[in-house]
From TrEMBL:
PROSITE patterns: BTB (PS50097). Pfam families: BTB (PF00651). This is BTB domain-containing protein. Residues 66-136 form the BTB domain. It comes from the Eukaryota.
Amino acid sequence: MGNSLNYFNSRENNKAERVSGNKRKRDECPELNNAGLELLNTPKRKRIKSTSKYIYQTLFLDGENSDVTLHVLGQEWKLHKLYLKQSPYFASMFSGAWKESDMPRIELDIIDENITCEALKIAFGSLYKDDVFIKPVQLTSVIATATLLQLEGLLLQCQVMMKDTLSSATVCDYYYASCSYGLKDVSIQCLDWLTRNILIAANLTFIKDVTADLMKTVIASPHLVVIQVEIDLYTLLKKWIFLIHNKSWTGDNKDLVKATDLFYKEKQSECPGLCYLETDEGRQYVPVFSAVRWHHVVNDLTSLRMIENEKILPHSWLEPMFLYGWRRVLAVEQGHDKGPIEKVDNEVFNTCCARFGRLIHKAGEYCWRWIGYSYGVDLLLSITSGRLVTVKRNTHTQACSQAVSLQDQRYIAYRLTICSFDCDGKELSRKSTDVKHISLGKDEEEIALVLDSDQKFPISVSMNVLLISPGQEPLPGLKYPNR
C-alpha cells in the first residue's frame, strides 16, 4: 500500500514537474504562446458535401420521393409540391380549388415558343438549389419560362446577366426579350447601348437584326452618338438595308461599303428611273429615313451630291429642307437671329439641335470642326493639355473655308457628352455638360469639360448644338408621296 502510494505520489510529482516545466517554457516564449492562441482561434474552412447539391441531385435529378409528375413539352419531370410552391404559379395551382391540386400527374400546355425543355430544367432546378448556371444564348428562353412560373429571383438573375454580357452579339436579342417580358431596365440599357455604339461598332453585321421600328427609335434619339455628322446616318441606313436583304453576308466594315454600293447599283438597273425608296421593296423603309434630321444634311454640298448620285432617296423629297434652310440663312444674315438668346426648353433643344461626334482612340492634343454650313459660326472643339475640352468661336485666328459672322456676340446652346467604353461597347465612364446656353465674342473660348487625370481611352465625343433660334413653325419633313 505504502509502495503503491509512493508510486502514485512519485508519478504525480513527475507529472506536476513536467507540467510546470512546460508552463515555464511557454512563459519563457511569449511569441510561441501567442501564436498558439492565434492558431486555436483561427477558423478553418473545410469543404464538405453541399446539402444544396445533395438535394438537387437526389430530389430534382433523380426524382426520389416525388409526389407530382409534370408533363411539359413531351418530357416528364418527377418533382415535389413542397418545392414547386416557391413559384406563385404552382402555389396557386396546388392550394386553390383547381382540379390539378390533387392530381399526381399534371400536363402543362406551353404556348410561348421561347420556352424550351432546357429552360424548364434551369427554372425547375432553381427551386432546388440556390445557384444557377445560364449561358447568354439561353437567356431569352429562361426569361420566358421564369415569367410564366413567376420566378422573380430567377428573373432578377437573368437581368443582371444580360447587363453584364451586353455586346453587339447580344443587344438585339436582349432588347426584344426585355420588351416582350416587361424588363424595362434592360430594354433601356439596350437602347442606350445602341445609341452609343451603332456608328462605332467594330463590325456592323449585327444591325441586320435591328427591326425598322427599333432603327427608327435609335435614329430619332437626341442622345444618339453621331460619328461624324448627320449624313453618316444616311450611310448607316444604306448598309442596314443591304444587310437585311443579305443576312448571310460576312466581312469587315471596308468590304461592307463595297458590297452595299454594288447592291444599290443592281437595284438601279432593275428599276431604272426610280430611286430605291420609291420601289416596292424600298418603300417600307421610308419611315426610318424620315427620322434623319435632313435639315442638317442639306447644308453640305458634298452630302447633297452624294444623295443625288446614289439615287436612293429622291432629291425632290428634300425641297422642304431647302426652303426652311434659306429662311434661316436670311434671318441670320440680316441680323434678325443671333442664335438662341432666350433659354431653350430641353425638349425643343433635343428636337432641333444638330448632332455631331468624333471617336478619339488615345490621349493627346486635338482641335477640329465639323463640315457643313454653320450660319456664320465657325465652332472649334479642342482637347488641350490632355484634359481640357474647350469650345471656341473662331473668327480670325484660324483659316476657315466659309463665311464667318463678324457680329460681336453670337449665342449658342450645346450639350457635350464624353464616354469611354470597353471592347464590347459597355460604358466605363461618362461626363456631360447637360444643356448649356452661352454667348461667345470673336475668337472667344470657354472650357466645356475637364477630363479625369486617369481618363480611359478610346472615348466618343458627342456634341449637340443649336446655332440658330428655334422657329415657331414645325421642322420640315421629307416630301414623299401621300404626305
